[in-house]
Amino acid sequence: MLKKILSGVIVVLLILTCCTAEAGVFPAFSSQTLNGEAITNSIFTGKKLTMINIWATWCGPCISEMRDLGELGRSMPEGTQLVGILEDNALDTARKIVAERNADFPHILASSEMNSYLYTVNAIPWTIFVNSKGEIIGEPLVGSRNAAAYRSAIENILEQEGGNSVVLQVEGAGGNLVVDKPIAEAGETITVVYTADGGYELNEIWVYKGGDESIIVPFSCTGNICTFTMPDYPVTVVASFKKTGDVPNHPITLPDNTDVTGGSVTMTGETAKVGDVVTVTYTPDSGYVFEAIWIYKTGDESTTVPLSCSGNICTFVMPDYPVSVVVSFKKIEGVGSGYPITLPVGITGGKLTADKNTAIPGDTVTVIYTPDSGYELETIEGYKTGDKSITVPLSCSGNICTFTMPAHPVTVSVSFKKTGGSTSYPIILPASSTGGRVTTDKAVAAAGESVTLTFIPNSGYKFDTAWAYNPNNPSQTVPLSCSGNVCSFTMPAYPVTITASFTRVSNSNPIPSNPVSPNKSGGGGCNVNIVGPSILALAGLALLKKNYKR
Question: How much is the average pLDDT of 290-315?
Fold first, then answer.
């Protein structure tokens, strides 16, 4: 009897012993990846930091963050890496999840050697960080997160380990970046080398404070080698490549209208190719007039860009670098300063002139419209700038119209039509839109015809917004009536340009109805029922009790 009792005690002790891991160290293991490749804990060697994401195919929050993890895995700081550990054995399902979400980092199959750690995991996704020796750093992150949140956690850990991180990012295809020091102290010289793939060349490279693109870090390049002095904060280096012979496309930064006092600024498009003519329209608020506009190289206000203005519309030729646009307005001090009068530019079929650019309330303003040969007047109207519902009465005799200046800015618009019949006008669709495309039931239409647009999102995107306007006068918009992703409008007597935006769908798959473990550190997790040491110990005690009764 005593021999049986002792045997039971030994079983319990063995169970407890096999389930105890060295504190703070991830267990040594030998396993395979989802692709069938052999892999061991030696993958930690030579890496300053490895992020381990533990997940399962039945866990909705795990799946919802997988696309962000794929993005993170492709832009990890130099000297770091991301791996996943698949907690269940639904391999075909796992491969499908990984492929659909482009999560192309290594996914390791959980092995028995890992159990001593996996038994401590009570909710997933569960993310930890280890150093080159497999030693666990910091606390686990429980629940789903986006790429930015994980990137911030990585930067914080690297900073705690000493120095600030240098994160490399390549936008699109065509090349890669290499840095000599992924972690550096303030004042150190950092060297970044960019390498273009065959048929590609560098489009653009820039350096900024991690998490804040408005803080630019100065750098200099000789050939394909760039250097900068490390500031006292993490840094991100971004590069894009273009096919050889392509015209570069650069971003245009407009001021946030919430930060502009006295008016607003609009522009068709946020980027432009070198040599494109870019149009900027400014609109003063009531009681304000335009003061100044200037355009300069982003990050270098001393490098200005020439522009040409007519009324409240200015144009410039896109240079071979990113630009920023700044507009200022000033408050009208008394009626002596007057209010602006805005006329359209680039009118098809004629032109419109005014005898003054500004006028004080009560002044008589004269405008003259002149049709081109083969054209005649179709419509002319006056209204408060920025609000077409507030009209300004015009009195016309022949081709001369007059109005009395009200106490607000005025816009006068005009359209012409070909003599003797209706005119068809083109409907201009965007050449490309990120996330989807636009189709129309007709390429041209006469004034008064109904036009139908269909907005077709790409996989992983959804239709967001659309707007229509006169390409010759972008401030002249066309009302759209939309139901779902189909919109329609009545064709005006001028060409119409269509612009659309699509937004990425954060999680296009339904989340399985598994229990979720709320926690204070993440965006959601799933309960994990793993037989831990305590259950195995109870099993041993039951065996003791059974033997004792005998």
Answer: 87
